[in-house]
Amino acid sequence: MSLFLSIEGGDGAGKSTQAGLLMTRLKAAGVDALLAHEPGGTAFGEQVRRLVKGAAPRSPMSELFLFEAARAQLVRDVIRPALDAGRVVVTDRYADSSVAYQGYGRGLDLDEVRALNRAATGGLTPDATVLLEIAPERALARVDGSDGAGGRADDPDQARFEREPLEFHRRVADGFRALASEEPERWFVVDASASPDRVAEKVWAIVSHLLEIRGMGGHA
Ligand code: TYD
What we know:
By secondary structure, this protein is of the alpha/beta class.
């Protein structure tokens, strides 16, 4: 028995923080879990990450292919083997990010994005997806530090998406919401504007329930 979870949301929603907190709880519960993140997670994927986050102009379709290339490698080398070994896999972003960003955000045909997702993943879909939902205005203030909390101070040459206009981030947020309502049995929407600890509690309630259903509850 394995469990494949993805965490999705816009820039600054707190996905990486929540993925880390979830891993800590999984380990404390004695659950054998692996954390992956996109884009990246393999040597090849980390190179792709620098390319996609960099400033070089590219068409939406070229950008999509880059994400798919990194994803194909990650699924083959990391995610698939871990699931085959019966582990829990948590991934910080996955194929739904391409539908939200390159589809809803950049305007690519949604069915084309989905077709490339299927090709890259071999059809591997998460058992459950947590959407960390927060208004883009608020999330972006976190990213650039204008909320007073100290921002991410990203290398400006590696902040391609954070620098997109608010409108872009609104389309992405609408996209995630649409995806969640199309497949309510897979998606769990969590209000990410609360404190990290409160958000983590909600995420844990969802994940521990899924583990229980599968008889993978560890010793929690
Ligand atoms: P990253 O620093 O990982 O952002 P975050 O911490 O917010 O996840 O940079 C990844 C960026 O790439 C992020 O802005 C979202 C974007 N992205 C896409 O546009 N499409 C995709 O398929 C994926 C996986 C990410």
